[in-house]
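Notebook B, p. 112. Complex prediction, attempt 2.
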Amino acid sequence: MAEVVLQGVSKAYAGRPTVHAVDLTIADKEFMVLVGPSGCGKSTTLRMVAGLEDITAGRLLIDGADVTHAAPQKRDIAMVFQSYALYPHMTAFRNMAFGLLKTTDLGKAEVDRRIREAAEILHIGHLLERKPNQLSGGERQRVAIGRALVRQPKVFLFDEPLSNLDAKLRTRMRGELKRLHKELGLTVIYVTHDQIEAMTLGTRVAILSEGRLQQVGAPMELYMHPANTFVATFIGTPEMSLLRCAVRPEGNGSLLQHERFLTALPARPDAAEVFLGVRPEEILISQSAEGITRGIVERTELIGSEALAEILIGRDRVVARMPISEAPESGEEVSLTFDFGRARLFDATNGRALTSI
Amino acid sequence: MVFGATLRARIREAGLAYLLLLPSLLFLAAFTYWPILRSLWFSFHDVVLGDSKIIWLGLENYQRLWGDRLFWRSLGNTVFYTVLTIPLAIACALLMAVALDSKLRGMAIYRSAFFYPVMIPSVAAGMVWVFLYSAGYGPINQGLRFIGLPDTAWLYDSTWALPAIMVMSVWKYSGYFMLILLAALKLVPSDLYEAARLDGVSAWDRLIHITLPLISPTLYFVVIIGLLHSYQIFDYVYVMTHGGPADATNVLTFYIYQNGFQYQDIGYASTLANVLLLFVGGLIAVIATVFGRRVHYLGR
Amino acid sequence: MTSLQIQTIPSPAAPPMAEPARSALTALRRGWLHLLLVPLALLWLSPLLWILVTSLKARTEVFDPAAGFWPLALQWSNYPAALSVAPFGTYLVNSVMVTGGILIAQLVTITLAAYTFARLTFPGKNLLFTLFLLQIMFPIYATFLTNFVTVREFGILNSLPAMIVPFVASGYGTFMLRQAFRQVPTELADAARLDGCGHFGILWHVYLPLVKPTLIAFGIITVVTHWNDYMWPLLVTNSEGVRTLPIGLGLLAKSDSGADWTRLMAATVVVVSPLLLLFVIFQRRFVDSFMHAGLK
């Protein structure tokens, strides 16, 4: 029963805008991930939701109530910080109890019950009497999550909570967070710079760049239908290759003319210059000459089950993915074709996705 | 309206800030800044302690100062004391600190032995040294006699009285400076010394070319602290010599006290106080330009 | 450690065989250090030794050049004799009240000011902070004259508050504590805000517990400084009822003027021993406090 609505939320520091009019609705029980490169405004946006930063302009509603200028503790939210922000001088138990005792008038028994319950869910029951410096990184992380859980807030805010963990632990905690979200039906806003985290955790993902919301949608939707070149290249590794082409009308359709190839399109995109965006798995290569163009293999990388090849087509460089058995030698000239059923076009002047291909 | 809310929050924060600073500012103003301004004002007037009548004198106090031989004597004594005691105490402290900067047995004992004078009240220290310096039965003179040197009535000898106080000051403060330098020495990365040793650099060169440059910010800091502690010479002069013999140990702070409290001449004493402030301020400025350009400290 | 070095760093000057010779060299160097340090330490300790020994001598022994260093018989009676010439009990109570008063007042003012400078934004912040720092350069020795006039006008001369008020604000303490507060991660303060703390809650529950070492260091320095204060209490007191220990000791010295060193040294032992005892018991704490006070 918690819906968070951001209406034109903006932030300016000393007159310099850093977040531009973000409109975003987080539905009840949704796991919303805010993702973007560092400095894109995602943390600032989260801190505005938390009430740790003033909202320069716009409105913030939680459950229909306007909390734009409410104090943090009045917003019924809880937050897990990047550094965990556990109080070093308090035990794990006291860390979890502190906010509860401050913000609610729950009895000691109820506080104790909630903490035991959260501790059980997080498997930290045996650590409650320890202080943060006696806990490992992963354990601290769990205590920090526990501190948020016991508050039973309407919304959980996470600020890059996994970035201080090693790779293995990160994967495990990712699964754990997913489980918690599902089992407890939490409403979550989660900030990360890691697109894999975003894609695996979010029910929906909001991508920010330079303080502007670029696109909001389910992970696969962002992957398959990026709204612009920024989203297209930000999501997916290796990133999508962009090939600059000129568009020439031809009958009902059009011709797409690249420096090195010419291909017909059934539709007529509304731009004179476009980028053809192809993901590594949408490039098909062969040694024979049946493709629409040819390219020189610059470099091949074997990454376990498959191979990546960097191929130069004229001045453009594309990355293709293929089974190891089909990996070309570097220096080799190969023939390529694109999966036009999935490839997409962007307006070269402003980077926006064009509806038809 | 929304913008107004942020502005209001900012005004509220500033208001809170001033409120929290208020207690400190009140007392700073009353007992640090107001006295300085006031002594400037007093110096242009004839002010007598306990007399509410204040007469404008213009620069008369300053003219009197110019011709006052006792003032020049006390200023000279202050300069002599300051510029010799501080380097001496720091040299002593550096020697102690370098000697103790190793895993030495009995380290804690040495450290306490050098440091304890800091915790003795200046009046007690002064008194004990009066005893140590006293003619005839004083332990120092007894020691000198033992090695066949003549007796000196240290504190009653106008040549030796001020140096005697300086020796006592070195005893009292080098322990403090030693501790601060020791803390700085511990922060010098040991691989630097190891690297220098592999390069065949001698111990003396290591001290001059590695240790000293690396602890120079601390040295700068210690010089400033030493300067501020040198004010305390008033206590020693008051207890040990009362400015004598024949004003050989009369220093500015003591001369201010004499004029203000014994002759009740607040106006002239204020004039002297301004000179003292100018002297200390000037010295700090000189140290800051000579030393501090490379080694910034406060405010960061 | 040394042996490890020699094994891993090939150096012609120190082949593995040279190890015993080398440690002998180190021992010799250490020995030299002791040879330097022992006399120096004795020199430094000798005034204290003389205080103790003299306080237990008979009066005549002090002036007799033929008498030895040690007293013939320990004259413990010097102590009661010293304590009976002046109301040392009253002095002690006054010293505790003045030092305690200054300490408490300073802890309050510097906590508030340091938090403000560390965490709040407001116009004039840098200017005000500079004003605070400037106080370090103008100790009471530089401003005692006009301060005396001020205190006199307030009508609080010859009272305990007169000895406290000039020291209520501390630029140095504010600076020290501000540095410590700035080391506290801002995320902790954020977490405390979400946990329902206002500025004072954050200060009390998060900041102060975390800077306890700095508070203790500052406390020790303040106590040592003001317990020993001489000039200012000397100027503003003129009756037995308000004098502190150092002033009492000074008066005793003046009235005796070298006539009775044994009694005077006994009184000195009484005056210096509280701090020296604390120092011996909490040596580490004291040393750390003075060591790091200036370096943060």
